[in-house]
């Protein structure tokens, strides 16, 4: 039997951090591994590393010009199975790493991705992370500073609006949600489904039948949403199921709120919403919709859980 070739390692290290996004505490939100690369690596190597981390998402950052002061980075996202086109929580985690480590000392960073250029900006916090690293260190981040990485702040993500349009798949989707009553059903251009349920309790009590979602066309994710209960601090609630991407239920999903936010902003006639994702870990964000320019702005926090150095495999 042919044996798999193991990864060969170089003498340098890659800095990484495990970060929980869309939360203000270490046990909540959606985990992502973020790797800061000195240069581009081949796809096979990236996929192997993502498989080793085995997180909902692994992000890979490369500065676009190591000799320039521009805050522009190439950003790619991988699950343990495949590269994905768009991931909100790993983008938030990447921005938090750059801001809290001091690699980026300005207020804004631009990510070049499969989804186009995505912008992340500081809203508040991160003051203690400024002016501590020498300029020669800011683009390489060879130092793991515990105090720095414990820094907190609020980030705003500038994402494209992804509307859902009505579709005729109510019976299919209801069956995948164990017969749940659906008030509205729509589909996005990316092949994700948005469904509105009668109440927040209905969303919380859903019993998803993941095997029935595997044959959906497109990405086949389901964004289940409803108005939050009358006494909630939030406006809307959701759960997100992505079994075709290897994630039965996602903990906190920024990309889904590019659709959820647009739907509720239109229905409620308001452009700003407090959103809560009712997964086991939970996730929260402030969603602002600008339909005139086709953008959704998500404000949220993230927390570094651990950080270290990864031996650099050749590739």
TrEMBL record:
Tell me which UniProt keywords the record has, alphabetically: Isomerase
Q: InterPro entries this protein is in?
A: Phenazine_PhzF-like
Top-rank lineage group of the source organism: Eukaryota
The Swiss-Prot or TrEMBL record describes its family as follows: Belongs to the PhzF family.
Stated name of the protein? Uncharacterized protein
Q: What is the originating organism of this protein?
A: Sphagnum jensenii
């Amino acid at each position: 039997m042919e044996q798999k070739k193991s990864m060969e390692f170089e003498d340098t290290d890659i800095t990484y951090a495990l970060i929980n996004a869309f939360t203000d505490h270490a046990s909540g939100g959606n985990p992502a591994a973020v790797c800061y690369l000195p240069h581009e690596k081949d796809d096979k190597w990236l996929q192997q590393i993502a498989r080793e981390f085995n997180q909902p998402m692994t992000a890979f950052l490369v500065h676009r010009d190591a000799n320039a002061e521009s805050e522009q980075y190439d950003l790619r996202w991988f699950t343990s199975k495949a590269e994905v086109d768009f991931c909100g929580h790993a983008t938030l985690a990447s921005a938090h790493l750059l801001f809290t480590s001091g690699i980026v000392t300005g207020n804004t960073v631009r990510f070049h991705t499969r989804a186009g250029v995505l912008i992340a900006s500081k809203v508040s916090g991160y003051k203690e992370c400024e002016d501590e690293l020498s300029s020669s260190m800011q683009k390489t981040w060879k130092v793991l500073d515990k105090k720095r990485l414990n820094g907190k702040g609020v980030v705003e993500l500038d994402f494209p609006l992804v509307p859902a349009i009505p579709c005729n798949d109510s019976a299919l989707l209801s069956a995948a949600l164990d017969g749940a009553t659906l008030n509205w059903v729509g589909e996005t251009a990316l092949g994700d489904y948005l469904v509105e349920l009668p109440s927040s309790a209905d969303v919380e009590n859903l019993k998803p039948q993941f095997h029935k979602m595997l044959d959906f066309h497109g990405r086949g994710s389901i964004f289940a949403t409803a108005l939050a209960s009358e006494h909630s601090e939030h406006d809307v609630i959701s759960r997100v199921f992505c079994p075709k991407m290897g994630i039965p239920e996602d903990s906190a999903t920024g990309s889904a709120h590019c659709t959820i936010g647009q739907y509720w902003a239109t229905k409620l006639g308001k452009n700003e919403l407090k959103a809560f994702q009712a997964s086991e870990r939970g996730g929260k964000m402030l969603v602002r919709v600008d339909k005139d320019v086709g953008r959704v702005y998500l404000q949220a926090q993230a927390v570094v859980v651990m950080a270290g150095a990864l031996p650099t495999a050749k590739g």
